[in-house]
């Protein structure tokens, strides 16, 4: 929901296809209060087409470029074929940010008395768009420094209405709940071997040197999967810092094990892993540990029988 009722010419906007006709496709502009526009048949693709339905489907959300706007008649002509891959990425990013801002403001309006959604946009949302380029960037700053954002809005002169304290409280609660960065889990898979005398001790020393690495608050942990495979992990909100911490830990382990005539082999370099990947690794480690335990129990049973 933007302050302007209509988009600018050449602006790339997100639309949802509502129906398909002989002349083209009727759509709703999702960022502009669902006003209607049309993607002309000639603007669907650069290639010759036989069937419109193969190019565009009802219900699909598409980025399109604004060609003409008649504010008096409410006509908006749009183009799909003039949108570049760079335009698509930029439009999707902007749309997702705007959707997050709208969702937060709508929730605050619904949960605070005598405060409509339009009131919130007028006293806070639209001024933030003008000051920060996008209200999303201001919301991100509010996670750690809300007062500086509210102060800039007040000093900007873009609104005469101050934000009530109870509205600030509700807004900050929602912003922090939705926008506080979640820590990323970074992992690398590494093999360590050493066939020298006291090789196990040399490997243990190499792993200790890796775990002694701390970079910008990132502690590295090493876990055994199944000899000779180990995983180096860390958690951080900053992807680059986490990857660098793992790289430094691997370098430290490498120096230690190579000095002892051992070998290090990085099977997979540091990368962000999903919860699913993390869970699968934990299940794999648990399964291997269980198999080792069962084998040990089996050997004990056999030896016990032989003693009888």
TrEMBL record:
Q: Which GO terms describe its molecular function?
A: ribosome binding; RNA binding; translation initiation factor activity
Tell me if Protein biosynthesis is a UniProt keyword of this record.
yes
Q: Which family does it belong to?
A: Belongs to the eIF-2-alpha family.
Keywords, A to Z, come to: Initiation factor, Phosphoprotein, Protein biosynthesis
Q: Which Pfam families match?
A: EIF_2_alpha, S1
What is this protein's name?
Eukaryotic translation initiation factor 2 alpha subunit-domain-containing protein
Indicate yes or no for the key word Endoplasmic reticulum: no
- Domain of life, per lineage: Eukaryota
Q: Which GO terms describe its cellular component?
A: eukaryotic 48S preinitiation complex; eukaryotic translation initiation factor 2 complex
Q: Which residue intervals define the domain S1 motif in the entry?
A: 10-81
């Amino acid at each position: 929901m933007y302050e302007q009722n209509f988009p600018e010419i050449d602006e790339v906007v997100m639309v949802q296809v509502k129906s398909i006709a002989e002349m083209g496709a009727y759509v709703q502009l999702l960022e502009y209060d669902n006003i209607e526009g049309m993607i002309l048949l000639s603007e669907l693709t650069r290639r010759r087409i036989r069937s419109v339905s193969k190019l565009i489907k009802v219900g699909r959300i598409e980025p399109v470029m604004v060609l003409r706007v008649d504010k008096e008649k409410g006509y908006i002509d749009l183009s799909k074929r003039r949108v570049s891959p760079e335009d698509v990425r930029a439009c999707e990013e902007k749309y997702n940010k705007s959707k997050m801002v709208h969702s937060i403001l709508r929730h605050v309006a619904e949960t605070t008395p005598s405060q409509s959604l339009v009131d919130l946009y007028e006293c806070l949302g639209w001024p933030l768009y003008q000051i920060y380029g996008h209200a999303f960037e201001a919301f991100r700053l509010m996670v750690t420094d809300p007062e500086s954002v509210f102060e800039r809005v007040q000093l900007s002169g873009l609104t005469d209405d101050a934000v009530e304290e109870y509205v600030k409280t509700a807004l900050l609660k929602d912003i922090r709940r939705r926008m506080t960065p979640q820590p990323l889990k970074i992992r690398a898979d590494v093999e360590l071997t050493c066939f020298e005398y006291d090789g196990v001790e040399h490997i243990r020393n190499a792993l200790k040197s890796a775990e002694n690495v701390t970079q910008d608050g990132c502690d590295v942990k090493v876990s055994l999967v199944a000899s000779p495979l180990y995983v180096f992990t860390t958690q951080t909100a900053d992807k680059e810092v986490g990857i660098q911490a793992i790289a430094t830990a691997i370098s430290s382990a490498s120096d230690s094990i190579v000095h002892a005539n051992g070998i290090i082999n990085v099977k997979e370099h540091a990368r962000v892993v999903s919860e699913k990947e993390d869970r699968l690794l934990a299940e794999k480690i648990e399964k291997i540990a269980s198999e080792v335990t069962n084998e040990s129990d089996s050997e004990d049973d056999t030896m016990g029988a032989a003693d009888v």
